[in-house]
């Protein structure tokens, strides 16, 4: 089957990597459920229901015209409206969008909430752009995307390069074009404008909640552990915050240019100020924390000895070499806060060496879980308190861990949460697809 996918999607390395990782886990499922093969579920689930590519034309502050490419993959709506973020980053391609959308199908299924899988974005780089330039770009982007989304059709959110500022601009353009106020068409909004409390924190918090459940099963904990968190965006900052709250010492984090190592423990407030307020590079951390060290090669962060590693930056940031370094330094657990941050070879090294491993589609599902909660609050014209949302998030992450762990054991791979997550997510969607017939 994977050969067919390769033939239909030549050169799309990231998408093919994502499909192979899922397909590799499913053999025991097909032995027990031949109906999945008979009804072509694998072929159907790996082909997007719709893939949209479009031109974005916008003008900078100097009056120069720029052209970018926009994407939206509406991958699978079996369980509900398409749901997934928008990424603004120059590395975004059709392959990356499809990989993210494919992962989103199963991640959303694991939450137990009624949402399908989608993803999108643009190769636009918001770094160095003025607020006015970002506004004009977002308005041009939404002029096309508006015709493809809606609260019961497709509900985008933020991702890398897209925060509440960008979402605010896109929601404003959507309202102008639709002549309607449909609060539920976007999630990740400013809480003052229909957004959910804890949404910004949800992916990072949820990753730590999931990993803590995994650690508990081995009589381990974040408490007293040394932790490395790659990245310094929303996922990283709030994973560091929650890990610290759980008693861990976070000793390193990074950005796209390098990493900082602070043996005294990373000051999360300093990182938050640098990244969320001042929008500065991570090496500025040393100005207020002179005992810290800076390394210009961000991949060297994985050579620092730690108990728990949380890759929260981007896809394929941990390769085989980095995984071997982590193993050699006796890491106990890895939790994927980013989407597919470990290569296939890295995952193999970690699992073969019996390192506790929390895969992204399970561990980082907290963000989309709270996004679905935001949709519910918008539908009710009501807002839950931060404590209520956080409690619901904790419950979702505990249930996802339990589902993955039990499914892995049921299908002959106890402790392998990659297998458990892939099978549990696939079965939920596959069973629903069969019930709906050929669609």
TrEMBL record:
<keyword id="KW-0520">NAD</keyword>
<dbReference type="InterPro" id="IPR014362">
    <property type="entry name" value="Glu_DH"/>
</dbReference>
<keyword id="KW-0560">Oxidoreductase</keyword>
<feature type="binding site">
    <location>
        <position position="158"/>
    </location>
    <ligand>
        <name>substrate</name>
    </ligand>
</feature>
<dbReference type="InterPro" id="IPR006095">
    <property type="entry name" value="Glu/Leu/Phe/Val/Trp_DH"/>
</dbReference>
<feature type="binding site">
    <location>
        <position position="203"/>
    </location>
    <ligand>
        <name>NAD(+)</name>
    </ligand>
</feature>
<feature type="binding site">
    <location>
        <position position="234"/>
    </location>
    <ligand>
        <name>NAD(+)</name>
    </ligand>
</feature>
<dbReference type="InterPro" id="IPR033524">
    <property type="entry name" value="Glu/Leu/Phe/Val_DH_AS"/>
</dbReference>
<feature type="binding site">
    <location>
        <position position="371"/>
    </location>
    <ligand>
        <name>substrate</name>
    </ligand>
</feature>
<dbReference type="InterPro" id="IPR050724">
    <property type="entry name" value="Glu_Leu_Phe_Val_DH"/>
</dbReference>
<dbReference type="InterPro" id="IPR033922">
    <property type="entry name" value="NAD_bind_Glu_DH"/>
</dbReference>
<dbReference type="GO" id="GO:0004354">
    <property type="term" value="F:glutamate dehydrogenase (NADP+) activity"/>
</dbReference>
<dbReference type="GO" id="GO:0000166">
    <property type="term" value="F:nucleotide binding"/>
</dbReference>
<dbReference type="GO" id="GO:0006537">
    <property type="term" value="P:glutamate biosynthetic process"/>
</dbReference>
<comment type="subunit">
    <text>Homohexamer.</text>
</comment>
<dbReference type="InterPro" id="IPR006096">
    <property type="entry name" value="Glu/Leu/Phe/Val/Trp_DH_C"/>
</dbReference>
<dbReference type="InterPro" id="IPR036291">
    <property type="entry name" value="NAD(P)-bd_dom_sf"/>
</dbReference>
<comment type="similarity">
    <text>Belongs to the Glu/Leu/Phe/Val dehydrogenases family.</text>
</comment>
<feature type="domain" description="Glutamate/phenylalanine/leucine/valine/L-tryptophan dehydrogenase C-terminal">
    <location>
        <begin position="196"/>
        <end position="437"/>
    </location>
</feature>
<feature type="binding site">
    <location>
        <position position="83"/>
    </location>
    <ligand>
        <name>substrate</name>
    </ligand>
</feature>
<dbReference type="Pfam" id="PF00208">
    <property type="entry name" value="ELFV_dehydrog"/>
</dbReference>
<feature type="binding site">
    <location>
        <position position="107"/>
    </location>
    <ligand>
        <name>substrate</name>
    </ligand>
</feature>
<dbReference type="InterPro" id="IPR006097">
    <property type="entry name" value="Glu/Leu/Phe/Val/Trp_DH_dimer"/>
</dbReference>
<feature type="site" description="Important for catalysis">
    <location>
        <position position="159"/>
    </location>
</feature>
<dbReference type="InterPro" id="IPR046346">
    <property type="entry name" value="Aminoacid_DH-like_N_sf"/>
</dbReference>
<keyword id="KW-0547">Nucleotide-binding</keyword>
<feature type="binding site">
    <location>
        <position position="104"/>
    </location>
    <ligand>
        <name>substrate</name>
    </ligand>
</feature>
<feature type="active site" description="Proton donor">
    <location>
        <position position="119"/>
    </location>
</feature>
<protein>
    <recommendedName>
        <fullName>Glutamate dehydrogenase</fullName>
    </recommendedName>
</protein>
<dbReference type="Pfam" id="PF02812">
    <property type="entry name" value="ELFV_dehydrog_N"/>
</dbReference>
<dbReference type="GO" id="GO:0005829">
    <property type="term" value="C:cytosol"/>
</dbReference>
């Amino acid at each position: 089957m994977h050969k067919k996918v390769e033939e239909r999607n030549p050169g799309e390395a990231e998408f093919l990597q994502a499909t192979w990782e899922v397909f590799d886990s499913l053999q025991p499922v097909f032995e027990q459920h031949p109906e999945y093969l008979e009804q072509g579920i694998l072929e159907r689930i790996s082909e997007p229901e719709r893939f949209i590519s479009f031109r974005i034309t916008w003008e900078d502050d100097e009056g120069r015209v720029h052209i970018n490419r926009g994407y939206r993959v509406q991958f699978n709506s079996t369980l509900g409206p398409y749901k997934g973020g928008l990424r603004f980053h120059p590395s975004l391609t059709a392959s990356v969008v499809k990989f993210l959308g494919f992962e989103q199908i199963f991640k959303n299924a694991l939450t137990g909430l009624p949402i399908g899988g989608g993803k999108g974005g643009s190769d636009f780089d918001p770094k160095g752009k003025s607020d006015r330039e970002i506004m004009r770009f977002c308005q041009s982007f939404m002029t096309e995307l508006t015709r493809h989304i809606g609260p019961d059709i497709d509900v985008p959110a933020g991702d890398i390069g897209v925060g509440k500022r960008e979402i605010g601009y896109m929601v404003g353009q959507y309202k102008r074009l639709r002549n309607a106020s449909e609060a539920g068409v976007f999630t990740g909004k400013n809480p003052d404008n229909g957004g959910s409390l804890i949404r910004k924190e949800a992916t990072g918090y949820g990753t730590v909640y999931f990993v803590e459940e995994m650690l508990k099963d081995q009589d381990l904990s974040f408490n007293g552990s040394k932790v490395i968190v790659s990245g310094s965006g929303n996922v990283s900052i709030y994973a560091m915050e929650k890990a610290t709250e759980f008693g861990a010492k976070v000793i390193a984090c990074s950005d796209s240019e390098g990493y900082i190592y602070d043996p005294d423990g990373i000051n999360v407030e300093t990182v938050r100020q640098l990244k969320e307020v001042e929008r500065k590079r991570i090496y500025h951390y040393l100005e207020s924390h002179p005992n810290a060290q800076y390394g210009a090669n961000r991949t060297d962060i994985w050579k620092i000895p730690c108990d728990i590693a949380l890759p929260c930056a981007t896809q394929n940031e941990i390769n085989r070499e980095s995984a071997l370094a982590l193993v050699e330094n006796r890491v106990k657990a890895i939790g994927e806060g980013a989407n597919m941050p470990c290569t296939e070879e890295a995952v193999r090294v970690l699992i073969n060496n019996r390192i506790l491993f929390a895969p992204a589609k399970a561990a980082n599902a907290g963000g989309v879980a709270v996004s679905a909660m935001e949709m519910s609050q918008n539908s009710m014209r009501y807002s839950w308190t931060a404590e209520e949302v956080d409690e619901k998030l904790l419950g979702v992450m505990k249930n996802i861990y339990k589902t993955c762990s039990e499914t892995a054991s049921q299908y002959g791979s106890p402790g392998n949460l990659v297998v458990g997550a892939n099978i549990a997510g696939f079965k939920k969607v596959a069973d629903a697809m069969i019930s709906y017939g050929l669609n």
